[in-house]
Each structure stands twice: as structure tokens, then as C-alpha cells.
Design a protein that fits this description.
By secondary structure, this protein is mainly α. The protein has three helices and no strands.
């Protein structure tokens, strides 16, 4: 959970910094709009990549959980059979 807050804070800070830098630079309106559009695309791609890394980390940390539960469960508790669960 702490990692997600750090990532979110980094992305928010980077985007605010980029917006401030773009808006404070003296340029024509068309150039400024193009830069904003480009930065928005870059930010979206970066956000997607970070989100996919985070999701993949969650998925990989859950791999093997049913087997671990079966191995740690006392003998008097029935085993989980994932093939019959629907």
C-alpha cells in the first residue's frame, strides 16, 4: 500500500511540475497546446506502465496461495478442490 502512495505522489508531482514548466515558458499558443498534448500522452503511458507493474506484482504475490492454504490446513479440514469450484 505504501508503494502505491509513493508512485501516485511521484506521478502527481511530475505532472504538476511539467504543467507549471509548460505554462511558464514563453511560447505561442499552438506550440503550447501541442506540448501539453504530448506531455499528457507521455503521462498516460507512464501511468499505464506503472499501474501494470503494480497489478503484476499483486498477481504474482497471490500465485500459489490455494496450494499454500492446502499445505497449511490441518488434516481434519477438507482440502480445497479448485476444479469443482464454480
Amino acid at each position: 500500500m505504501a508503494n502505491s502512495k509513493v508512485i501516485l505522489g511521484f506521478i502527481a508531482g511530475a505532472s504538476l511540475g511539467a504543467i507549471a514548466a509548460i505554462l511558464l515558458a514563453p511560447e505561442k499558443g499552438t506550440e503550447l497546446r501541442k506540448k501539453i498534448a504530448d506531455k499528457t500522452v507521455d503521462l498516460g503511458l507512464s501511468l499505464k506502465e506503472n499501474l501494470m507493474d503494480y497489478i503484476n506484482g499483486i498477481v504474482s504475490s497471490g500465485t500459489g496461495v490455494p496450494e499454500k492454504v492446502d499445505n497449511e490446513t490441518p488434516e481434519h479440514v477438507p482440502s480445497m478442490n479448485l476444479n469443482t469450484m464454480g
